[in-house]
UniProtKB/TrEMBL annotation:
Gene3D superfamilies: 3.30.70.2450, FAD/NAD(P)-binding domain (3.50.50.60). Keywords: FAD, Flavoprotein, Oxidoreductase. This is FAD-binding domain-containing protein. InterPro entries: FAD-bd (IPR002938), FAD/NAD-bd_sf (IPR036188), RIFMO-like (IPR050641). The keyword Oxidoreductase applies. One of its GO terms (molecular function) is oxidoreductase activity, acting on paired donors, with incorporation or reduction of molecular oxygen, NAD(P)H as one donor, and incorporation of one atom of oxygen.
Length: 549
């Protein structure tokens, strides 16, 4: 019998991201899938899922900590604790792998939930907080640029349009939603700009009307690629249609969409993520996004619960606490995603009242003119508050715990190039990071306080160590060397140049708290707690130990 540490069934985005997250901690993973190029769900609303999966698979294959087995079908689970799975490969040979943890990332009809957890643990997908059922036709299109040579009959050339301007006119940036009258529609660009890919989705009244989906697509799309005027409302002499031979249909299929979520996220040593745990309608692109969040927030917890020597969990007493906090946070996050899907769904599926129509137009006008405050954006507001209102999460209430860090450009101590702020979290093998926030004039005092606090707390090194301390200089200039001290290898300051988005660097401290001096940060970008001085830091470290014991 083979053995590993974590068995992941399913090699879609969620399973692959979990594997790569665990590989960063040097945890051994076996990933099994029965379809080399297949997808468990239709392509993501904002990703090219086949390309995304290919990139992730390549990274998994290259990792010495991952073993990817394609063409394998899981047929049984001989034992629950520790979990083992029986599989059959494409040559009909059978085998058994035993692990410390089993993760089902095999889709909404996958074997882990349907065959293992439903019968023995009663875990099933139930209707979520957003009730929705509908049949949609979803198409992926690849657009080619027409030119005066290939399409001389196109009247836009006489108006001075370039091939790129023609493309931008008919296939504008962003995502676009149409509500009744007419079929509810969601469409827009996705993927790399150079690929010129377009996603087009529209609702059908019933599934039996989707037999000839290509014909339905062209019937619905043709009026939308016919223009009577330009982007400023100036009428053309006659209507202009984008050339159909410049549109390649990569995929066009009907899908039944609903919103469901599991009544429990794990049982004993078997855990569910991705579509195995929840499914979403298409309006807001939350399916894949939620699956990736599942994986990212589970990875560091499994690292702490996986023993590389004895085969048993490291934090035996903390198993349920860690997984229960993960389940609570994921349930809260899925409800947030469902709420956002509901808002977008109402825009798509319901006829808008006059007042809502006027408000939407005012909203878009203010946004185009950059007069709209960020706080009005419901998605940005939801991201900012993170898990602060969730109960049972892995953070300290009242200490900014649960807030989500912003991503900003930084400069480091030895590099002149721009870094992203998540670099702070990636350069340590410890799970958590202690960020010291100070001015240049503070010298080495705050850094040494952080050292003394960690040494005094006697925290296990895989959780927090002296090597996981980072220093963030609030007032360091954008040019010139950072102050030299013991922490020189791990010092950062905001990159304030507008050319790389540095004008928004203040949002980083806004989310942490202006008076905060020490921050314990989880590897998934959420704050465990913030402290204003050494005394509060000692209390936060003690709370961290308690939650892991």
């Amino acid at each position: 019998m083979e053995s590993t540490q974590v068995i992941i069934v399913g090699a879609g985005p969620s399973g692959l991201v979990l594997a790569l997250t665990l590989a960063q901690y040097h945890v051994r993973i076996n990933v099994g899938t029965d379809n080399i190029l297949g997808q468990a769900v239709p392509e993501g609303l904002l990703q090219i899922q086949p390309v995304l999966e290919r990139v992730l698979r390549d990274a998994v294959v290259q990792s010495p900590w991952c073993s990817l087995r394609t063409g394998c079908t899981v047929v049984g689970r001989p034992t629950e604790e520790p979990p083992s799975v029986e599989y059959r490969d494409d040559n009909c040979r059978t085998g058994v792998i035993r692990g410390q943890w089993l993760v089902g990332a095999d889709g909404k009809t996958g074997i882990v939930r349907k065959s293992f957890l439903e019968p023995c643990a009663g875990i099933r997908q139930e209707e979520g907080c957003y009730r929705y059922n509908g049949t949609w036709v979803a198409a992926n299109l690849k657009i080619s640029l027409p030119t005066p040579e290939t399409h001389p009959e196109l009247s836009l050339w006489e108006l001075g349009y370039t091939p790129q301007q023609v493309y931008d006119l008919f296939w504008p940036e962003g995502w676009h939603f149409c509500s009744p009258p007419g079929k509810p529609t969601a469409s827009g660009r996705f993927g790399p700009h150079s690929e010129r890919l377009w996603r087009h989705e529209f609702r059908q009244a019933s599934a039996h009307e989707t037999r000839d989906v290509q014909q339905l697509l062209w019937e619905h799309l043709s009026p939308m690629i016919t223009r009577e005027c330009d982007e400023d409302g100036r009428k053309f002499q006659s209507s202009v249609q984008f050339p159909r031979d410049c549109i390649t249909v990569l995929r066009c299929e009907p899908f039944r969409f609903t919103h469901k979520v599991v009544n429990r996220w794990y049982d004993k040593r078997t855990i569910l993520i991705g579509d195995a745990a929840h499914v979403f309608p298409p309006f807001a692109g939350q399916g894949i996004a939620s699956g990736l969040r599942d994986a990212h927030q589970l990875g560091w917890r499994l690292f702490l619960l996986t023993d590389r020597e004895t085969g048993g969990p490291k934090l035996i007493a903390g198993v349920n606490a860690l997984l229960d906090s993960w389940a609570s946070e994921r349930q809260y996050s899925v409800q947030d995603a469902a709420f956002f899907s509901m808002l977008m769904g109402r825009l798509c599926n319901d006829r808008l009242s006059v007042w809502v129509y006027l408000l939407l137009n005012l909203f878009m006008l203010l946004e185009r003119r950059r007069l709209l405050p960020r706080a009005v954006n419901p998605q940005a507001h939801q991201e900012r508050k993170g898990f602060t209102r969730a109960s049972g999460g892995f953070f300290m209430k009242g200490k900014n715990g649960g807030s989500r860090l912003a991503q900003i450009p930084l400069r480091g101590d030895t590099k002149s190039s721009v870094l992203l702020s998540d670099t702070i979290l990636r350069e340590s093998r410890s799970t958590f990071t202690l960020l010291v926030i100070q001015n240049v004039s503070d010298g080495e005092g705050p850094y040494k306080e952080a050292i003394n606090a960690i040494q005094g707390a006697e925290v296990w090194e895989d959780i927090l160590s002296l090597q996981s301390i980072r220093v963030y200089y609030v007032d360091a200039a954008s040019s010139g060397p950072l102050p030299q001290n013991e922490a020189t290898r791990h010092t950062y300051s905001p990159w304030t140049e507008e050319s790389v988005g540095g004008e928004n660097h203040r949002i980083y401290l806004d989310r942490i708290g202006s008076s905060t001096k020490f921050v314990i940060i989880r590897p998934d970008f959420f704050l465990f707690a913030g402290a204003q001085d050494r005394l509060e830091l000692d209390l936060c470290l003690a709370a961290l130990k308690r939650q892991l014991s």
